[in-house]
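Progress note, sequence design subtask.
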């Protein structure tokens, strides 16, 4: 056996010249077909975080009730954190000029099969009117943890969400125009008195079993094909 070529290959490899076999190829740029659709409906509004990043905010804070649909780029395990907000006066916990006790409700479905249900964590942070007292209404609040949406936040002591029926929540027309099959309406224990609720869950792997690339950290690398503009032409450029 001729040892010279083997020794030379070893030397070149150590020196960094021979890298093609061992170097990790740069990731390709994600495409729109790498994303999944998120359908979200909240009574009355929400903020959605995925893997610690804010990805959607309900554009209508009260009425009309609307569905927000956004494309998201998943990466597993995937931490989902949501702030569910029922429209309520911050001092009385009531709505419509302090004449009515409102109710909440939140539902989500992702294109990978992720859905809301009682396995999610849910904790109330503002509730009222205490005891349902509308004559002397008052509200109690808990300070929000500043990192409640972070991947490494410890929610182990939070209670599980409670599921509510479609009849109990009473979603409006836009809800029925979108795919929420298999998802459940969730909230904390009291859908009427709990006005601000935080939700969390971790999706360990895609529920639909489909393998997907992990594109996290693209801001720190040059993806395959470089970082220049590709694929489009402006009509005003000559």
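Output:
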């Amino acid at each position: 056996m001729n040892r010279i070529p083997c020794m030379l290959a070893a030397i070149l490899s150590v020196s960094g010249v021979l890298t093609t076999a061992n170097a990790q190829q740069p990731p390709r740029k994600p495409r729109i077909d790498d994303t999944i659709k998120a359908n979200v409906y909240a009574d009355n509004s929400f903020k959605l975080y995925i893997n610690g990043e804010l990805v959607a905010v309900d554009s209508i804070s009260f009425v009309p009730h609307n569905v927000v649909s956004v494309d998201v780029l998943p990466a597993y395990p995937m931490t989902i954190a949501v702030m569910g907000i029922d429209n309520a006066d911050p001092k009385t916990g009531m709505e419509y000029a302090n004449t009515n006790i409102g109710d909440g409700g939140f539902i989500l479905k992702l294109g990978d099969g992720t859905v809301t249900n009682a396995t999610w964590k849910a904790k109330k942070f503002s509730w009222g009117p205490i005891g349902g007292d509308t004559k002397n209404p008052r509200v109690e609040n808990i300070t929000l943890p500043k990192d409640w949406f972070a991947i490494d936040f410890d929610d182990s002591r939070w209670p599980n969400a409670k599921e509510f029926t479609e009849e109990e929540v009473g979603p409006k027309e836009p809800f029925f125009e979108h795919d929420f099959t298999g998802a459940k309406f969730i909230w904390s224990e009291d859908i009427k008195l709990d006005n601000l609720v935080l939700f969390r869950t971790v999706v360990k792997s895609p529920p639909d079993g489909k393998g997907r690339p992990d594109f996290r950290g693209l801001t720190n690398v040059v993806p395959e094909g470089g970082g220049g503009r590709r694929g489009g032409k402006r009509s005003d450029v000559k």
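The longest helix spans residues 3-15. Work on this subtask will continue into the next period as scheduled.
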